[in-house]
Design goal:
Elements: H1 17-26, H2 32-36, E1 42-45, E2 61-74, E3 80-88, E4 91-98, E5 112-117, E6 120-122, E7 125-129, E8 132-136, H3 138-142, E9 147-150, H4 159-173, H5 183-188, H6 194-202, H7 207-239, H8 249-256, H9 265-278, E10 285-290, H10 296-309, E11 313-317, H11 321-334, E12 342-345, H12 351-363, E13 368-371, E14 385-391, E15 412-417, H13 423-426, E16 434-438, E17 448-453, H14 456-471, E18 475-479, H15 497-506, E19 514-517, H16 523-534, E20 540-543, E21 556-561, H17 569-576, E22 586-591, H18 597-608, H19 612-629, H20 648-663, H21 673-683
């Protein structure tokens, strides 16, 4: 067994044994230290309950009672009211929710619950509107103390057992915890001693004790992660030497002449920040994020031309062949009158074409390469790669940009995304990168009015409006979540592009020319359909999300999204960015019969704003970091107890402290050795940190 008492396997705690240890293992609890650092999922504060007779209007208070009546009714204007009546020792209090029918399914008569909120007096009774609800079970009632921690459980493990096991660990092992933070640092940042924090976390006397303990453990989690990022950034700055790529006024003028438009102020600012990085001998590591249509690709092409002007090669890597091809087309259009030698490298080249392409890249004859991740395969050798641009990096996984580094000289790296990233994710997932943001839209971009369509009557009105717009010369996209009907769909499927195409061609839009495009068509077919739509020969294009990026038809002002609840919020925003790219205002109709709270909230967010950065923040609140960035398949952010939405303010604090410790080199002082060791143990491998720090 390990000499460190904290690494004692949980099964050796009294009353645990192999069977319960297996259940604890499902919760990621394998050692005593795991139990000590386990964050309660919430706490019941039974020290601060108010009797109904003592309630005061509009003050935050909590009542405890048992459920005696459930009531759901319809109101005028299609609204609904749901109400739950609590018996609080002979006095009654009501909780009410508007337009949330589902809430009643969460209650059973006889259950004991807490309602927290700011009550108002209505019809002689106290009423809480949309209160916070906590359920109290038998285990909670039997627990001693006024502040009762509640832990996540798994089937076969009861709350009173979990509390007993954690209490056993705290009472017998908390004393072995060594605090990695020096005392002056703790005092400066108002942090409890680690031993004290663990005791108060699991056995708090009051809510102030619990909050201070919780703050310490969450701060540790965020600080250690941010230190990992700060150390990785320091390693790059110290070790990754790059060829400087200076920009003279002459080079700048020559590059800008290739663009048929003037850059926006946002694009010019981005160019200035990137050029300042490129001129240095340290490799650039920068994130360029922009809202849909804000022109990030033009900025990336500018940066690649700077590299080429300095005699280096540049590569642009995209996550899919469709996107790589679209970038290739953009590059082709911009450089049609230039002497830059360029190439599209994807998996669909023939063996002979690929052999020739690899030879031309290796010799340096090809200066600008656009492609999928085949560009980082082992047989691709660059003569002198000066800049690598990685588009939508989160679709690859966070470590892939490291493939371009290594050797005596590293290329400058520009990561870019057209999915605006919530601020807290910028500080974590991309926290080691410098960030450039373009939020301004090119001049002349028209607004898009977005409406959620939930009823047959609203659908009829929407189609009538669409027909009127088509008759006046506009064009429309109709977007569907899948290509063909599923096996369990007996009739026409409103989510299938093929069925929607048939239905609209013979129904709502029979008087108009309708086209169909999807990802299973070969490239030539797809190009023909798209060209017919671009030129106006077809007025309506039914499609899947193949039109999500890169399709630019200025006359398309209408978008109808079928089964809009099937799409993510950022994806819907991307799709909406395909319309109103000319002189006319756009209209987006989100068809969705769903009344699920999450679906309705997402679609309402799109109705209320067209700002991609606000939408990204809302999406983050609703779906969490993994879903927002598509990182579920690559593993979650490696945080143990912190929550990026809930703990955003503490993240700012921890980040500032972490980067200050590294920049000032305090982290290298003997007092911080235990902290540095902990960071390397947690993140050394993940972040590719040298074990010497």
């Amino acid at each position: 067994m390990n000499d460190d008492p904290l690494q004692t396997p949980v099964q050796f705690l009294p009353g645990v044994g192999p069977r319960r240890a297996e259940l604890l293992g499902k919760l990621g609890l394998r050692t005593v230290e795991d139990l000590l650092r386990l964050m309660p999922r919430d706490v019941l504060d039974l020290t601060d309950l108010t009797a109904p007779g003592d309630l005061q209007k509009d003050r935050l208070q909590t009542v405890r009672g048992s459920v005696v009546d459930l009531d759901g009714r319809s109101l005028s204007g299609g609204r609904t009211l749901s109400a739950v009546l609590l018996d609080c020792g002979g006095e009654y209090v009501r909780g009410v929710w508007f337009n949330q029918n589902w809430v009643l399914r969460k209650f059973q008569p006889g259950e004991t619950v807490l309602f927290s909120g700011k009550p108002k007096r209505k019809s002689g009774r106290w009423e809480f509107s949309h209160p916070r609800i906590q359920w109290i079970n038998e285990d909670d009632v039997q627990s001693h103390g006024g502040v009762v921690p509640r832990y996540g459980l798994t089937e076969g493990l009861k709350m009173h057992e979990m509390r007993r096991i954690v209490r056993e660990a705290v009472e017998n092992y908390a004393r072995y915890l060594v605090d990695p933070l020096p005392e002056p640092f703790r005092e400066q940042n108002n942090l409890l001693l680690l031993q004290e924090a663990v005791n108060r976390l699991h056995q708090p006397a009051d809510m102030d004790q619990y909050r201070a303990a919780r703050r310490r453990l969450i701060f540790d989690d965020l600080l250690e992660f941010q230190l990992g990022l700060a150390l990785r950034r320091r390693v790059w700055k110290q070790t990754e030497q790059a060829v400087p790529l200076p920009v003279t006024p002459k080079i700048d003028a020559r590059i800008r002449r290739l663009f048929p438009f003037s850059f926006t102020e946002g694009q010019n600012r981005a160019v200035r920040e990137i050029c300042a990085d490129l001129a240095r001998e340290q490799a650039m590591h920068r994130l360029l994020q922009a809202d849909v249509g804000a022109g990030k690709t033009a900025v990336a092409v500018y940066a690649m031309l700077v590299a080429i002007a300095a005699g280096q090669q540049a590569v642009l890597m995209a996550p899919t062949e469709v996107l790589a091809s679209q970038h290739g087309e953009t590059v082709e259009q911009l450089l049609i009158h230039s002497r830059v030698q360029r190439l599209l490298l994807t998996g669909s080249l023939t063996v002979a074409q690929r052999r020739q392409a690899l030879a031309d890249i290796k010799s340096g004859e090809i200066q600008l390469i656009t492609g999928t991740q085949v560009v980082i395969q082992q047989d691709v050798e660059f003569a002198h790669l000066g800049l690598a641009v990685i588009d939508e990096q989160h679709k690859f996984g966070v470590m892939q940009r490291a493939h371009f580094s290594g050797g005596d000289v590293s290329p400058h790296v520009l990561v870019m995304t057209a999915t605006p990233i919530p601020r807290t994710l910028c500080l974590t997932e991309f926290g080691d990168l410098d960030v450039t943001t373009i939020s301004e839209m090119p001049p002349g971009r028209q607004e898009v009015i977005t409406s959620r369509i939930g009823s047959p009557a609203a659908a009829r009105k929407a189609w009538e409006f669409v027909r009127g717009q088509l008759q006046s010369g506009r064009q429309a996209f109709v977007v569907c979540p899948r290509i063909e009907r599923t096996a369990d769909q007996p009739g026409a499927d409103p989510a299938s592009a093929e069925d929607v195409y048939q239905k609209l061609s013979t129904g709502e839009l029979r008087d108009f020319r309708v086209g169909l495009v999807h990802g299973r068509m070969d490239r030539r077919q797809r190009a023909e359909v798209m060209e017919a739509f671009r030129s106006g020969r077809t007025q309506v294009l039914v499609s899947t999300t193949v039109i999500e990026v890169g399709v630019d038809v200025p006359n398309a002002t209408l978008m109808i999204v079928q089964r809009a609840e099937s799409f993510g919020l950022s994806q819907l925003h991307q799709l909406r960015g395909r319309i109103a790219r000319g002189v006319f205002r756009g209209y987006c109709f989100l068809f969705s019969p769903s009344d699920s709270p999450e679906a309705v909230q997402r679609l309402m967010a799109l109705e209320s704003t067209s700002d991609g950065f606000k939408i990204a923040e809302r999406n983050f609140e609703l779906r969490g970091p993994g879903d927002v960035l598509g990182t579920r398949q690559h593993g979650e952010l490696p945080l143990k107890v912190a929550d990026l939405t809930r703990d955003a303010a503490l993240l700012d604090e921890a980040r500032a402290v972490a980067f200050s410790l590294v920049d000032s080199q305090h982290i290298d002082q003997p007092a911080y050795v235990p902290l540095k060791i902990r960071v390397l143990e947690r993140f050394g491998k993940l972040m590719d940190l040298p074990q010497s720090g």
